[in-house]
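## Example pair
The file below holds two records. Each record gives the amino-acid sequence first, followed by its structure token line.
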Amino acid sequence: MQCDFDVIVVGGGAGGAVFASACAAAGRQVLLLERGARPAVNGPHLSERLQLIDKAAYDDREVCVNGLPRRLYMGGVLGGGTAMYGSALLRPGTDDFHPGSRYGSRLSRYLWDWPFRYDELEPFYAEAERLFRLTGIASADFGPLHPPQDGLDDRMLPLVPINQRLIDRNRAAGLRPFRLPLAIDTQLCQRCDACAGYLCPYDARRSAAQVIDETAARHSLTVLTRMDVLRLNSSASGKIESVTVSDRENGIERQFTGRIFALAAGAIGSAAVALKSGFDGPHVGRNYMLHYSPVAVGIFARPTGAGASFVKQVGFADYYFGTPDCPHKMGIIQSLPAPGPLMLQKSGLSYLPRRLLNVLRQRLLPLVGIVEDLPHPENRVIVKPDGSLGLHHLFSDFDRQRGAALGRAMCQILKRTGAVHCASRPFPSLEHVAHQCGTLRSGADPTHAVVDSDCRWFGKPNLFVVDGSVLPTSLGVGPALTIMANALRVSRVALALI
């Protein structure tokens, strides 16, 4: 059968962009379908209201979360989450691929080991680090995490003084802080205090959209934005033959045929497309995960620089496998930008005048922890009869217990650095869905998984999934680099079929 394209990819985030780029670079005719528009910044002076309150670059769908309608902080433009992420790209540790070694009976036996190992991904981690032009120091002590590749670009942004103090005082106390590897071009970066959560007006922060555009300029990669994918159409044998889309500009429906198809619309979006396509099953859309992320904020007597410069520079893996009072696997700690006055108001300080909020912001240093949440089938994506999306998700008591312990540890780190007061909260808000994964998980057996070890859908030989939804568990670091590396690995399998 004559096909419109060799490869059709749904979603232009971390996984979709890398997969599409690899297939196009290998000489295949590739179509990438993106629901969002191209990212458009609002000038060099970023608007907190437009970006974080009005959520201009975030997904415009209303999702019913645990019965309440919400607009989520979920990438809604070409580039997906990489258009707004904080650019920290970290490799996990070996134990992350063998979660049974840490969780034992808390996980079913078939989840004790991932269907692919770290060493299978290792060369693709290095390739993804080069593709996203990672800067960092490969010789640093990353504790239980695997360090980035040798020869990493070591032109890093200068440490702001508060971060140098954060490193020095905690290193003196026996901890092992490290500089975060960042996908930031230090020649272009203006060290904005508003970074994570915003589109970068200088193109300094490396995104999947840049990878897509660079590939499209050299190879046969067609990119269509503002396209709602309505369904994948399959034959009686299960093979996908075409995709039906609706142009969001005019409502016109179109259909494209292809040889290979890849879902990469994120843990919510990919599951939704599958369910709309009638690909139901015991695990489709279930086991939704996102890291439990306690936040600790230190208040200092003098300005920290967080209100005037880029401060997301430091990470800790000392409590990856637990704190002294809670010896269970958790994840990393990393610094965060100081929230702007509007986000401070939204977080519960609306009673303070704007002038005082600005003074307070100048004296803050926030940290965020990552607690690996475990899969649960009741945490799931739902497509309602009218086509709208629902999401059911609750953290477990085990998540909350570990989050509280990591919050206490972060407060100790900040007080050691010189904070006169430290406050922590368990989770940013129910609108934050960073690091989502798990809804189309990979595994060795279709009884317990949706896709196989090559991330090919069981029973659908030409359908792959290359985003975070395939991750069986959620890791102790942000999943972006692992998603990229896995997309590169899976692209080799897909290309062999064409």
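Second record, same layout:
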Amino acid sequence: MLRIILFCLPILSHVFGESSPNIIIIQTDEHNLRTLGCYREQMSQDQAFIWGKNVFVETPYIDSLAKDGLICTNYFAASPVCTPSRASWVSGLYPQATGAPSNNMPLNDSIITFAEVLRKRGYATSYLGKWHLDGDAKPGWAPSRKFGFTDNRFMFNRGHWKNFVMTKDGPRVGARKNNQPTYDLGNADDKSFATDWLVDRSLEILERDKNKPFCMMLALPDPHGPNTVREPYDSMYDHLVFKQPVTMRKVLAALRNQPGWMKEQGGKNLIKKINQETMANYFGMVRCIDDNVGKILTFLKDNNLYKNTIVVFTSDHGDMMCEHCRMNKGLPYKTSVGIPFVLRYPDRVPAGKVIHTAYTTVDFFPTLMGLMGIKDNLPELHGLDATIAFTNKKKEVLKDRIVYVRHSGGAWVAAFERRYKLVLSSLDEPWLYDLEKDPDELVNYFGRDGYEEQFKRLKEELIKQMKKFQEPALATKKLRYK
């Protein structure tokens, strides 16, 4: 027996590496950057507190990940709606190459995810929460196509349910009407509310897998609407008075100055008044998420897993939360396309690192592989491996990079970098933003003196990437950029 063990050790070392890290990915849904303390710290006061002075939610556990690891200030959804963003995250490909460029479209069978790569290397892989990559099924528990996530018992395809229960037949939505699942809270408490329930199931899986290399992805359905949350979070922020953001006031005062793609894409959803209860409940959902992140971090510490586990906190896309008179996502504004991305990995990533370079969700897969030292037997990937930027000794990374982002229906495409942003569409002239001079994203600098070089540089790089990644909107020849 001893001879067998000694013979196997080199093989196990080759498969797992000397310090094969565990991976925990916590992904929220429709999450506004400004609700996280670690992001507000990177902003000016007027940008950090757009709803009023001292109007904020505390997120100490998520903030601790940024403090002990890194924070990316310019991380973007490759396409700012659920399905295409999630498709790019798991595949490392732009949505048009995944079979799922728009909501409710199923991921192609041929897609190889990062979970599949790790499963083949001996990792215990699991996925809990919202998937949204298996077509129309709703809720659609435990899809038959697992895409490398061996344990997907608690994966559901679609919906923003608030109450889950376990039955003899497996998980189901606890709030029901006429025996059909609803988004109602029902009698949700700290055991059945969606966020709590999914985290409790996560802790059970971590307990089971803690003695082997594991990769777990937890996709929480909040803080996406409906904006409801269990006690005591439902009243925790009732004392706050949410004021109109500057962009809301200015857009209401001059509706004619909106870009064409703003008017055409969901113009009927214009918000003219802040709903105080909706905003307070959104804050409550974020606080509930943060408290549950704390449970996971405590488990890692208690089980001596904190040092050798890569922990990522992110989202699929943002939420405008009344900026520019809009809620939700789908637009090229920063709090629609911009997502939180904080990563903690003490073995390789210096604490307190701030990265301003632009990345998108297609970059996650190759970067994860790079951090883990996995180079062989990888599928085709569109993204960039950011390992060098993540692991070097620089406390602040300022390198410029232009990334390409697309609308799920092809209404617009955009090029983002640290300071400038260019949006092209068939609905208006190009919109060029200078985020240093105009962080509120209200002014079009296209055609203005001194911006010719910036426009040309972003346009040429955007077109180059659209050709490389076969952007469908380019083939229509309707984009206006000359």
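Notes on the second record: Residues 1-18 have pLDDT under 50 and may be disordered. The chain is about 30% helix and 15% strand.
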